[in-house]
Amino acid sequence: MQRLMHQFKYKATELGKQLGRLMGNDLRHTNHRFNDIDVLIPLPLFRAKEKKRGYNQATILCEGSLKS
Q1: pTM, 2 dp
Q2: CA quadruple 55, 58, 63, 67: dihedral positive or negative?
């Protein structure tokens, strides 16, 4: 799990989309409080970190959750 999180944090955006799909499915099917949620909004990342990584992990997760 630690290796997966490190890969997602620094390299693998496709992994993040898959994790986002899992997150979206979990929110829709296991917690009825989120049944009426239409969109997830990611928090911004510090500019220097986003520039270094090339992407915002929260954005990737949210994009993936829309596809579930």
Answers
A1: 0.73
A2: positive
